[in-house]
Structure formats: structure tokens, C-alpha cells
Amino acid sequence: MQVSGKKIVVLGTGGTIAGTSAQAGDNIGYTAAQVGVAQLLAAVPGLQALAGGALVAEQVAQIDSKDMDDGVWRALALRCRQHLNDPEVRGLVITHGTDTLEETAWFLQEMLEAHKPVVLTCAMRPATALTPDGPQNLLDAVAVVQAPGAAGVMVVAAGEVHGARYVQKAHPYRVHAFHSGDAGPLGWVEEGRVRLAQNWPLPQDVYDLVAIEKIVSATDWPWVEVVVSHAGATSRGVDALVRDGVQGLVVACTGNGTIHHALEAALLRAQNAGVRVVRSTRCPEGQVLPKPGDVFPDSQGLSPVKARVALVLDLLRAG
Ligand code: SIN
């Protein structure tokens, strides 16, 4: 779709970027998701001017992103799709908590035909901090939306632009909390200018709109859990999940997709009983390299939490 409009819609979902604490110096004892997105935007000097007065705020949710759920994802996907189809809209910014930001980014990457930019941004420090990082991240996110040729689902934080596929929260405290592992960032935002190191991400080839309707209208999404292979792993957790009706299991494997023999036995029983099993790796970088004779498919480079999102959507599509 041709980009003709100027409007930049900022969809608020909560997070630390909208968090407040009783004391300005307190960067950890705060409550996330307190400030409305319109108020957040109004508090950033020069933001509306940077966007040519075309910023529009819309509150989709107001949560700590550790509590992200299917309902918010559904609402967010629908609002994104509606705005992306509006010729007046140049692109979207989504304010989000850092904790599950990468999962939402991957969910949207799989759901949207994002020929326009969809930029998730966040903050590690609350809005009330002595030096909050949210305002600069918002300015940078708007700069990315306005960059020529920008498209696809991205994350902007701490001056870096990341693609949805590889971005991961890698630090629980530092302002520079995200990385894209081996892939590296797509680029950087420097004084309002985007310097690309890679091409803009390609929009996902969206399977078909009926499938999207199916996904957003399904009231019960498939139950998919992540299990970890570790020293001393047993079969009991997986056996209990299968008894309770789990439909998919993503295994955060050791190294190149290896699994403790006790856990592996349970996973084989699960797979034989019709549960979808997918292997990812616990290693923060790299991906499982498949080899002949593998019993379980691998996640094609997706981290365990993103592989869970992909499996949920796959099961929904197939259902
Ligand atoms: C959250 O993820 O909503 C809280 C933590 C954060 O945004 O850094």
C-alpha cells in the first residue's frame, strides 16, 4: 500500500514507560501502567511538532506487560489492522512494557501485513524517574515511522532499531536492555535520523484475511506451554500437562536442541498422543541447527517464547 497520509497513531498498552513511583529516584519500586498514552505524549517536548502535529493517541490497554494475554493481543491486532488500512495513516507506534515486548512484536509480525511501519517502544525507567528513557524512545520511534521506506514490525529502544524476529530483552535493569543477538540491530536513531545497518524488515506474507478473522474471533486460544530441559529434568511435568489437555509444547533445549532423556521420553509420549512439540534453544544467541533423524521439529530460529506464539497461531490456523 502506498504511504500517503501523515497521521501517526500511538497505541498505548501500559508498561514502565507509563509507570510512576512515589520517589523520582526510584527506578525499581514503581507501578507500571499508570499514565495514559495521551498524557505521555503531551509530556514530551517537541514530539507533536516532530510528527507535524499528526500524532493521535489511543489507549488499547493499560497493563504491566508481564500480564499480557490473548485478549489484549486480539484487541491490539484489530486496532493495528484498522489503522494500517487507513490511507491517512503513515505508521503506528505502540507503547508497551519491556517484559513481553518481544512476544507482542512477534505476534504482530505474524498477524499484520505491515507495509507501513509498526514500531513498538518502551522504557526501562518509569515516567517519574529523574532521567526517564521513555521520552527519547518516543521521539526515536516517531523518527523511525517517518524514515523513508520504513515498513514492518520493529522495536525501538535506547537508540537502536530491532526487527521483530530476533529482538530480545537481555537485561533486567539497564536502559540498554534489548539486543538482536547474532543478527544485530537493524540500525540506530541518532539525533532524529535513522542510520540503517540492514534493510527494513519485509512485511509478513499474510496467509489470508479469513485466517486472521479466525484468530481474532477464537475465544479459546490453544494451550501451549514452554518447558525447559535442564539438569535433573523429569517426565512428570510434561505427563501432567498432557493429562490436563495441553495442545502444544515448546522445549527450551540445551545447546543445539538436545533434551534430557527423561524429559525426551515424556515429549515423545506427548507427540504420539497428538501434542505438537517444537524445539528451541536455551542459548541466548544462535539457533538449533536441524540434522537428519531429528524427532521433533525446530523453531526455525525463534526463541522459546516466540516459538510459543508461532505455535499458538499455527494451531489456530489449523483448527
Ligand atoms: C512491563 O513490562 O510492563 C513492566 C516492565 C517494563 O516495562 O520495563
Provide tags for this entry.
319 residues, alpha/beta, Rossmann fold, 2 domains, eight-stranded mixed beta sheet, three-stranded parallel beta sheet, 9 helices, binds succinic acid
Detailed description of the structure:
The structure is a single chain. The protein is of the alpha/beta class and 319 residues long. The chain has helices at 37-42, 47-50, 70-84, 101-111, 134-146, 209-217, 236-243, 261-272, 304-318; strands spanning 7-14, 55-63, 89-95, 117-121, 152-157, 160-163, 168-169, 178-179, 187-190, 193-196, 224-228, 248-253, 276-281. The chain folds into two domains: 7-196, Rossmann fold (3-Layer(aba) Sandwich); 222-318, Rossmann fold. The strands form three sheets. It has an eight-stranded mixed beta sheet with strand order 2-1-3-4-5-6-9-10, sandwiched between helices. Strands 11-12-13 form a three-stranded parallel beta sheet, with helices on both faces. Helix 7 runs parallel beside helix 8 (261-272). The longest helix is centred in the first third of the chain and has 15 residues, at 70-84. Succinic acid is lined by residues 14-16, 32, 64-66, 97-99, 122, 124.
Question: Using only CA atoms, what is the Rg?
Answer: 20 Å
Query: What is the C-level CATH assignment of the largest domain?
Result: Alpha Beta
State the helicity in percent bands. 25-40%
- Rough outline: globular
Poorly predicted runs are none
Give the DSSP E fraction (strand runs of 2 or more residues). 15-25%
Spatial order of the strands in the main sheet?
2-1-3-4-5-6-9-10
Ligands in the model, by name, code or SMILES, are: succinic acid
The assigned structural class equals alpha/beta
Number of domains: 2
Largest sheet features: 8 strands, mixed
The CATH architecture assignment of the largest domain turns out to be 3-Layer(aba) Sandwich
The overall average pLDDT, rounded, is: 95
What's the number of helices? 9
Instruction: Tell me the span between the first and last alpha carbons.
Output: 30 Å
What is the N-to-C succession of helices and strands?
EHHEHEHEHEEEEEEHEHEHEH
CATH topology of the largest domain: Rossmann fold
The CATH homologous superfamily of the largest domain: L-asparaginase, N-terminal domain
Number of extended strands: 13
